[in-house]
Design a protein that fits this description.
three-stranded mixed sheet; elongated; alpha+beta; three-stranded antiparallel sheet
């Protein structure tokens, strides 16, 4: 690795440790010539993931675009920035694990929405309204009803798993 200070071609690794949740390596190096220390980062070079837009255009997957859309949906909601970043990272990881070279923007939106509803239901409705291009109030009502049914099912499941205290008293 070339020294950024003197330009000498040889340096040695002094320290190496994982960074960015194990997705990269941070290396401290020292120049063999001038002794200057500097840091380098080593990352896996992924094949480009192409997004097929609704109009047929193709462009490289840009996690910043997804982050921006989700962040707008979460505006003035109690959703930590780190949770949004983690959601975007989870979507990208999921897409890469599929081993696809191309994915539709529609599929990316669906995957993001599956994760966003678990994070914040209001942000989910906001994101869905833009992403699915709601054109009337009935679409909002349909989404709200779907969320309501989901919440009721989760509530019913939670109450089914709680032990019944009256059964314990009768057993004695």
């Amino acid at each position: 690795m070339k020294c950024p200070i003197c330009g000498h071609a040889n340096s040695r690794v002094v320290d190496s440790r994982p960074a960015e949740e194990g997705t990269s390596l941070r290396r401290r190096r020292q120049c063999d010539d001038c002794g200057a220390r500097f840091t380098t980062h080593e990352r896996i070079q992924h094949l480009p993931l192409m997004v097929v837009k609704k109009d047929g255009r193709r462009e490289g997957f840009n996690p910043d675009k997804l982050y921006g859309g989700i962040a707008k949906a979460c505006n003035k909601r109690p959703v930590p920035t780190a949770a949004i970043a983690q959601l975007v990272q989870n979507v990208e990881t999921f897409l890469r694990q599929q081993g696809l070279m191309e994915v539709t923007s529609e599929r990316i939106g669906d995957i993001a929405m599956e994760r966003l509803i678990q994070l914040d239901q209001v942000a989910y409705v906001r994101f869905a309204s833009v992403y699915q291009q709601f054109d009337d109030v009935r679409r909002f009502a349909q989404v709200l009803e779907r969320i309501s049914r989901r919440t009721r099912r989760q509530s019913d499941r939670a109450s089914d798993t709680k032990p019944d205290a009256s059964k314990d008293l009768n057993a004695e």
